[in-house]
Amino acid sequence: MSPAIAFPAGTILGYPRIGRNRELKKAIEAFWKGNLTELELETTAANLRAANRERLVALGLGREDASIPSNFSFYDHMLDAAVTFGAVPTRFADLRGENGGVSLAGYSTIARGEGAKAPLEMTKWFDSNYHYLVPEIGPETSFALSSTRWIEEFLEAKQEGFVTRPVITGPLTFLYLSKPSDDAPTGFDPIERLDDLVAVYEQLLAAFAEAGARWVQIDEPVLVADIDADRAEVRANAAAVYGRLAALEARPALFVAAPMGSLDDALPVLAGSGVEAIGLDLVRGAVPAGIDLSGVTIAAGVVDGHNIWRTDLDKALAKIDAVKALGADVAASTSTSLFHVPHTLEGEEHLGADLLSWLAFADEKVGEVSTLATALTEGADAVAATLESTRAALAARAAHPGTNRADVRSALDAVSDADVERGDYSDRKAAQAERFHLPQLATTTIGSFPQTTDIRKARAAWAKGELSDEAYEDEMRAEIKRVVDLQEDLGLDVLVHGEAERNDMVQYFAELLDGFAVTKNGWVQSYGSRCTRPSILWGDVSRPAPMTVRWTSYAQSLTSRPMKGMLTGPVTILAWSFVRDDQPLGVTADQVALALRDEITDLEEAGIGIIQVDEPALRELLPLKKADQGAYLDWSVRSFRLATAGAKADTQVHTHLCYSEFGEIIDAIDGLDADVTSIEAARSRMEVLPAIRNHGYERQIGPGVWDIHSPRVPSTQEITELLTLAKESIPGEQLWVNPDCGLKTRGYAETTASLEHLMEATKAVR
Ligand code: GLN
Ligand code: ZN
User: Fold this and answer.
1) Residue 705 domain-assigned (yes or no)
2) Residues 157 and 230 in one domain
3) For ligand 1, atom 5, which residue shows the shortest CA distance?
4) Contacts of 616 (CB under 8 A, 6+ apart)
5) Is 502 in the pocket of ligand 1 (CB under 6 A)?
6) Which of 202, 251, 533, 651 has an alpha carbon 20 to 30 Å from 468's alpha carbon atom?
7) Does ligand 1 lie within 6 Å of residue 656's CB atom?
8) Over the stretch 38-67, which tens digit does the pLDDT of each residue have?
9) What is the atom index within ligand 1 of the atom nearest the CA of 447?
10) How many domains does the chain have?
11) Does ligand 1 have an atom closer than 6 angstroms to the CB of 680?
12) Is 400 in the active site?
């Protein structure tokens, strides 16, 4: 057993990894381009880690008390775990060095793919907008400690006088989120390898102990989610794993963190396993009841790591007291890692004093944790002034006119059930066939075309006032024309305008709708080096003027083929923004839906006959607990229908969803009642289509045939194979041909070549 070492009074489960000015993104992208050496990249990363440690101390965390989490990652924490444990898929075996480890270049290749070797699949991290890489595990995976990077990072900090707390993904989360490798026999489940994997965790913990680590944080968010596995099995595995790790002779104290929800029946299991501390998410989950927690330390996650609102410190302290009453030693913590929120409010003064005073980004949240820690150790009186100013700010937020607008409220009250019904699909289908005369296997794209450096430069110059409105407009129009011409040359059936004028599919609308604010530098990691800048939905939503009509009708004026209008759906606008936490999400979604509904009417009046309302985030907001999913699907589907059901029968409504696993939400997708739904399907090789067929789905579907997440150009033959596979499940007249997603992050060379192949394959299969 390890010696008892006090858990720090305040901590955070993790800190943003990309750097205040996205230093890591820039460095790793330069490394990929060959403009930075491996050593230079390592140096940039080490400097970033050093700066973060100093900042966290300045914000109130302790230098040597293990309160600073060490959760750095070059790309993704699941990939880090995979390469650390030797779980490299066979197709990348040649990347492994003598000790089984991979270089940074090899690590990047596993993440991004190379030639015919597909990268690891990428999917959403629980119900967040972060994407992780899915490890591939089979009977052949030879688990072994294959990287000392985590230990070296601990030692790097130690050399500068810090005792940090290494953060690693737990074995249950790692295996339950993995998928069977290509070599695995059918029916194989990665969790079968649990014992072998835990042996490597044992070695790792011993190595951490030897390096001088006092606490190690093991993240097990999988314990808060309802996954496919039987819950009793999950509990039994948790008991076995943590009993085994706790029984180790020489090890650091163990802190098992369970962000993203409530542990429920897994809490007693962990509490009885012998681990020293448990992290509870008390923002999403309630304070547990009826359990004796004496002898364990609870890191009470009372500061929301997943949203940007200032913490109600009184409520937070009350929760902490309630946990204390269960007999536990209590520390103040965040509910999740802070990598879900931007670095700092510094530099965001343009948001205005009111809004600023309601917000807390990562650094401000660290400050809140320190305040709570002081209250814990010295009593609430020691922080009385902060408590008072927090109360005043929260009261001002509740009383602000923008958070409660009579016009928006009454429009919503007037909505009736008829407003969410579009009428029979068969009538629509006939009206649309008559209007558009599209061939079988109609070809289209998901909306965006490459955002070239020129486009980005023009937008930046325009934002700074260096480019006039007219000059910007001209540049965007020229780009739209280029994109339309290209699609005509390629012979696509339904065209798009390319979204050149959109910085981001949510932010673009956020900037044009009332009730939103946009940050200057509020970046959060989406996947790898990709970051997004979520808008802040703080007030009641309304649409002061049409948002897309000008661009779409210009694009339509350039071609006789149908031009697809392109909107972002209410659920996605919510999911990819930081959303107000002072009313049910469904109410906020319906406010957005009404604004979109008016936009659709305006597009129809401008002659646009096909309108796509993207809902890529529908699934990611799906609650992790089955019991909560029904209610979510009800309001989310209804708000999509509220947005789209005003469309005429001969207007073809498309939707786009960015994933392929929709087993559990297939009814909801059906319920959206879109005429055409495009989904991601290339990496998973159309895996989902048989289920869609068996469900009796009668409308049209466009399974993606080109994985746009990597620069790889798919061959005509590959696409032909995918289309042939698709046709085995879905009749040709219901089938569309499109890429997996928008092309915004791709270059023109790949785009043109891939779309040419897509057209050739379509002709071959037609
Ligand atoms: N229309 C958007 C685009 O093409 C859809 C992107 C998405 O689904 N994430 O960029
Ligand atoms: Zn998509």
Assistant:
1) yes
2) yes
3) 742
4) 572, 656, 657, 658, 659, 741
5) no
6) 533
7) yes
8) 999 999 999 999 999 999 999 999 999 999
9) 4
10) 2
11) no
12) no
